[in-house]
Structure formats: C-alpha cells, structure tokens
C-alpha cells in the first residue's frame, strides 16, 4: 500500500514554518510497517490544492492531507477534497452541534467561517478532534482512502494515532514488517559509536541479514539495526545484544524511551529524588525532567541562579569562591549541585554553569561548560567545551547533565565510561 | 514565476532525515522576491521520480531538484531528468577529468557509478560543486528551467546562492517583490483575532490590494499582510497601521521579534528585572527568557517549586493556604510570584501553577492554570483552562505567562485587554 502525504499552507512554502509533520508521519507510519511513497506541500490556493491532491490520489492507495481545516477564509482543504471527489459538501449536524457547544464553552463566537468546520464531502465522515476545534475527514475517492487531519502537530499526532493509523492498518491487512531495534545513546558522537561497533559491523557484513545505520541529533546518537527483509527478529535481537555488549553503559534505552524518562525511572526505582541548579541552561534541565508525566514523584524542583549573586544567596556558593573564580568554574558547579540538594532536600543535586554565548564570560570562551552531580557518595564534575550556537550549547549541556545524572544514579563508572565523560 | 522544489531520497520519506532543504530554500527564494509554489518529496525509485518531476515541470516555470546526484546506485536524478526531457545523457569530458583528479587527490577509487556524476542531459550544462563531488545540472525542459543540486545542506546552499539563484533572478527579470508585514500576537486565538480584524478585512476586500492571512502556532497567532501584486508597500503599511489600531496591545511585535525578546527589551528599557516561580511549566518560562542573548541583564533567576512543600519552604507561600487549597489555586500563584520577587530581588515576579496532566490534581481538572505577575503596583492573577496534551498545556502556559508579564511591564490594562485575559 502506497501512502502519500500532502501538507497544506503558504507558511510551509515560504519557510515560515518547517513541515515537521512530514517527518513525524513518515517515522510513525514506517514504524507501523506502512510505506510513505511521496510527500507534497502546497499553498492555500484552491486550484493548486486540487491539482496536487488529484495527483496524489492518482499515484497512491491512501492520502493523508494535513492542514487547511480551520475557521478562516484560507482554510480550503474541505473544498479541495470535495472537488477532487466530484461531490458536494454537506454540513454534519452532530459536528455543528459539537462546535456550537465547544465555542460557547470557550466563550467565543462561532462565525460562519467557523461553522464550515462541520462540512464533510458527501459519502465521507468526520473524524472527531479531541485536541482542537477542527474535525478531520475520512472519505473514499475511487478506491483511495483520503484522510484530512489538522496541521497543528499535537492535533495531527493524536488524530493519526487514534483514528487514521488503525484505519490504514485495517486496510493494509498484514503489513510486511521488517524487524528493527534502535539503541539510544547520549554524550558520544556518531563517529565514536561507529568505531565502538566496528566488530559488529564486520560480523554483520558477512551474512547481510541485518543493516546498521546511525542517526545523530543534538548530543544523541541512535543506532538502528534493521533486518534486510521481512521477519528477521531473531537476527536483529542477536545484533542488538552484541551492540549492547560493545557499547556498555552508553546505551540509555531503546526506541520510545527518552533520556529524561529513563533517569526518572532509575530515580523512582531507588526511591530517590533530584533537585536541579542551573545557570547557562536557564531552566532547560528542569523543563526536560518535568516534561515526563509523573515527574512529581522524583523531581523536587530547581533553581535557576542566572545572576551570579543568587548562586551565593540562594544556593549557598561561597562568596569568596565566586569573587575569585567567577561563576564559570568546576568548583562553582560542584557547590551549586550540593547547595540545591540541601535547599530542596533531594537525594541528588545536578548543576550546570558555563558560557552559552554569544560573548565570552569571566575570561572563559563560549562553550566552556561545567556539569556537576552531588549525591550520597559525593560530587562529580565534568569539564566540557562545546562548539556551536547559544541554543546548541544549551541543548548539548542539558543532554550531558541528564546523562551524567543517569550514570551516577545507575552506579556506572561516570569518570571512566565514555558515555559519561567522552 | 512559479518555482517548485523536488527533494529526492527514501530517507526523507521514512523521516530518518528531516527535509530542512525545503524550508531553507523557501526562505531564501522568498527573501529574494521569488515565489515557491510547491514542494514534493519522492523516494529513490526511478519511475516515481519521473512522475513527480514531470508534474512539477507541468505546473511550474522553474524546478529545483535536490538530492540523488551522488555516486551510488540509488542516485538516479540525472536519469529522471533526462527521461522527462526526452533526451539522452552525455558524459561531460571536462567534469570527468575534474572528477578523476578530485578522487585521485582524495586517494579514492572512481567507480563506474562515480563516473556517472559527469553525465548531463543533452542540451544541459553541469553546475560545478565547490563543496563536494557531485556536480549539479541546469537544463531547459520546454520553457521550464530545471536545476538539480546536491542534497547535503551546505552543498545545496552554496550552489543555490552562487549559481541557481542568480540564474533564476535573471530569468524572472525585475523580481515581483510583494510587500509584507507580519504582526505577532500571543494569548488570543486565530478566530478572535480574525473577528477583531473584520472591519479591516471588509475594507481590504473592496480594493483587493492587500491580502490577510493568519498563522496560528501554540498560543500565538501571526497576522500576515501581503500586497496582492509587486510593490504595494504603502498599502501594506496602511493596513498594518489599521490592524494595530484594531488589535491594540495584543500585538507584541513584528516579523523577527520573539515574545521573550520583546519582554526583555521592555524590562531593559525600564531598568527592571524579573524572577520566575514555576510549577507546572517546570522551567520552561525561565528557559524561554534565557534563550535570548543578553538575558542576564534582566533575568535574575527562577525557582521551580515542583514539590508542594517547596512552595512553602523556598518561596514562602503560607503553609495554611497550601494545606487548605492545595498547590493549584490563584492565591498560591500570587504568593509564588511575590515570594520569588522577594527571594531574588526582582522588580517583577511571575509565577505559574496548574495541572499539566495526565491526571487531575487536588480536585482540579487537567488544564486548570493560574498565572500571576507581582510588581511594584501589586499582583495580578489570570485563571485559565487549557485543553490538549501535557506538552501543549505547558507550552500555552509559558506563552501566556510571558504575555501577561509583557502587558504588566508595558502598562497595558492586563485585566481588561483581551490580549492579556482573553
């Protein structure tokens, strides 16, 4: 079954908004064993939408259109689908009723344009939207299944998971699933990971049953092990076991895990808690930890001591140390971690200080970073030097802080293990 | 002149690699006054490439194909272009010579597949690649200009800047630059903004010189005013002035501004500082403020009091209040804002508390949010109810907290203005 994606919106063409939906859907459908055969982006103009949509319908067995379902005059996806299907639009009274109640509940006016969100091409059905006002559409054009889903990522994802994907899988019958496992690592570059896995790559090259690929994103590297054909789960499992042997504590989890989630699980399993003290990351470490549902069981809280004097007055870093060394120093990181651990009564304290840029600070170059973890067994400090933009330096620091915490909580040799110091 | 982009590669369809080239090219061509009318992504298969490329050539005046030019068996862009043009491929001896020298210099073997990089469709020409091995192609198909450029972003950008863009601008003659302004708002939905601008939309509908479009992203709505044809800056300026009149304090900035950046500018202009107390946002408000270079001039710091007892022990919220009302209460938000203002000696304190989910808390439903700003003139609290995922509720809360701070610092009537309370 070939599936095409069509993203609608002038903002995507001019690059005001990145079309992240294409990647998100591509990964999700691929993981479900389905095949995305093409992606198109088209503006808000009706004629262009009709043309692009008709081509997608001609080529594919299913088409997912995202965007253009909202309450403004440039939302014309409903019209375009009806035109390609050659049917009129009908107003769905149940959706109209739901929209009226929803807008009343939000104390907002439902305009005539807003009401168009209840329109469905004849023969199609509405897809309820639990996360927004614009319902989706499912309709058959010939023997092609066409779905229209909202453009905002969180609405798009929910409607895909709950309504579109089950429908597609039902239509596809038994999908030709290739076995895959993904090992997640943080703190080490793609090149180093590949070098560590060289023995495995040599072994795999002999029989060709499992393919290895690397996918690097800010501070993290994903190792993908995929069977060369359908099936092959046993071969992939064996390759994954060998890869874990070679990578050791560097692997923090597998597909579906997040670094913050793994850290929180480790803490919960040990009845331990964490408190965070941040400087250059300015709240990112705490935000990442608290993004996980149930974080309140293990996260005490955090202090961003952005101004240097607050590192003393709130976190208790010695004023003489700050005066002598400035805020960017390994001892300051250590005292911040210990200070926030005391202040918030956490089992562990984790701290970041450094220079995110654009300007050097206290005589230290941009990218200088110190990360500390304080715990029952003492305090560990990492000294790092990152390159890149302010945003990248903050992001890399956040990943490394979470990974150092992981190593310390898990009892991994944080000072020797390349996962934790490399 | 309509320009279509075609990105080639299986890795884009499955989402292993995000198609950032589309956004990059979209922004670059738009900035040059050119118009991207469509984007397609297609896999490495020859038939699919020929089909997609032929459609793009049918619709557009120029087509830029990225990717599929390299030295492996799945690089078939040259073949596809020749097939659509209906001409054979010829080997360019100058490029062949250059390739042989280049590979020799890198001590690498030039295979038969590698030599195909010297192939050009009859009637076309090679585009030299200063940053990689794969030369590009420029060829006319009918009266459509077709360019093939490498997929790796740095090669793609360099070849676009130096060779494709000058050629496109020459073909376009005087580029039809359309004037545009973008007004940025936070805190109000797209529908409400559209209703507030209805008088302007009516006025503009009469002469049709300026088009209005809305772009909604988490908690923010962008109003885009674009001239219908080339020029029209005066008309767009007049429409922008009228829109600002209708939207009042809801507009926080224009294209290029960020909400956090605007808030920091306001604070700096008043020699004021801010301290943040977070619960459900868990560090996001502080992280957003400190993402702006130079934030240290105005951001004192923040406390994430995620555990309820820390709202008392660190921020000084009255223990009886917490015991009686729980952590999710407007008075708790107010005391948190006042407490962090005191603790960190800020001019302003801003606080968030609420239920991000997935489970209700203290008898309050998911999405219940209180935001407070404490300042020299007293304390204001917003009571809100958001829908959506945990991530979205945290994101919306962050935007609203920054926007309430903006209104208070700017002296806007935060309690009446829909920008601040709607």
Automatic annotation (TrEMBL), chains A, B:
What top-level branch of life does the organism fall under? Bacteria
Task: Name the SMART domains on file.
Answer: MoCF_biosynth
User: What's a Pfam family this protein contains?
Assistant: CinA
Residue intervals of the MoaB/Mog domain: 4-171
Give the transmembrane ranges.
Answer: none
Listed InterPro entries = CinA (IPR050101), CinA-like_C (IPR036653), CinA_C (IPR008136), Competence-induced_CinA (IPR008135), MoaB/Mog-like_dom_sf (IPR036425), MoaB/Mog_dom (IPR001453)
By its UniProt entry, which Gene3D superfamilies does this protein fall under? 3.30.70.2860, CinA-like, MoaB/Mog-like domain
Q: Extract the CDD domains matched here.
A: cinA (cd00885)
* Family annotation (PANTHER family): NICOTINAMIDE-NUCLEOTIDE AMIDOHYDROLASE PNCC, NMN AMIDOHYDROLASE-LIKE PROTEIN YFAY
Similarity comment text for this entry: Belongs to the CinA family.
Identify this protein by name.
CinA-like protein
Q: Which organism is it from?
A: Embleya scabrispora
Classification from the root reads: Bacteria, Bacillati, Actinomycetota, Actinomycetes, Kitasatosporales
């Amino acid at each position: 079954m070939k599936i095409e994606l069509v993203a609608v919106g002038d903002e995507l063409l001019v690059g005001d908004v990145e079309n992240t939906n294409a990647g998100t859907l591509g990964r999700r459908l691929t993981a479900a064993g389905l095949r995305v055969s093409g992606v198109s982006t088209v503006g808000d103009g009706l004629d262009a939408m009709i043309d692009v949509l008709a081509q997608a319908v001609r080529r594919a067995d299913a088409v997912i259109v995202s965007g253009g379902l909202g309450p403004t005059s440039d939302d014309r996806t409903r019209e375009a689908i009806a035109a390609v299907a050659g049917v009129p639009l009908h107003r769905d009274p149940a959706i109209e009723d739901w929209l009226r109640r929803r807008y009343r509940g939000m104390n907002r006016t439902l305009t005539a344009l807003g009401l168009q969100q209840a329109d469905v091409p004849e023969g199609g059905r509405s897809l309820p939207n639990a996360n927004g006002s614009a319902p989706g559409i499912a309709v058959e054009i010939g023997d092609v299944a066409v779905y229209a889903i909202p453009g905002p990522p969180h609405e798009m994802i929910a409607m895909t998971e709950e309504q579109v994907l089950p429908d597609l899988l039902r239509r596809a019958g038994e999908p030709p699933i290739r076995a895959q496992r993904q090992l997640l690592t943080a703190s080490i570059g793609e090149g180093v990971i590949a070098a560590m896995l060289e023995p495995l790559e040599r072994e795999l090259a002999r029989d060709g049953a499992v393919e290895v690929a690397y996918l690097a994103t800010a501070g993290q590297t994903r190792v993908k092990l995929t069977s060369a054909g359908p099936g092959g789960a046993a071969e992939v499992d064996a390759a994954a076991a060998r890869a874990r042997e070679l990578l050791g504590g560097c692997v923090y989890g597998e597909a579906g895990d997040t670094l913050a989630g793994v850290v929180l699980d480790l803490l919960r399993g040990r009845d331990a808690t964490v408190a965070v003290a941040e400087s250059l990351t300015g709240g990112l470490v705490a935000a990442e930890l608290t993004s996980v549902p149930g974080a309140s069981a293990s996260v005490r809280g955090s202090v961003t001591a952005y101004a240097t004097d607050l590192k003393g007055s709130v976190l208790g870093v010695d004023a003489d140390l700050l005066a002598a060394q400035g805020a960017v120093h390994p001892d300051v990181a250590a005292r911040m971690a210990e200070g926030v651990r005391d202040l918030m009564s956490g089992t562990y304290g984790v701290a970041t200080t450094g220079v995110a840029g654009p300007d050097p600070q206290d005589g230290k170059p941009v990218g200088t970073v110190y990360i500390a973890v304080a715990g029952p067994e003492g305090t560990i400090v990492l000294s790092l030097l990152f390159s890149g933009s302010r945003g990248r330096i903050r992001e890399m620091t956040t990943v490394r802080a979470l990974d150092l915490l992981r190593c310390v909580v898990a009892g991994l040799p944080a000072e020797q293990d390349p996962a934790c110091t490399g």
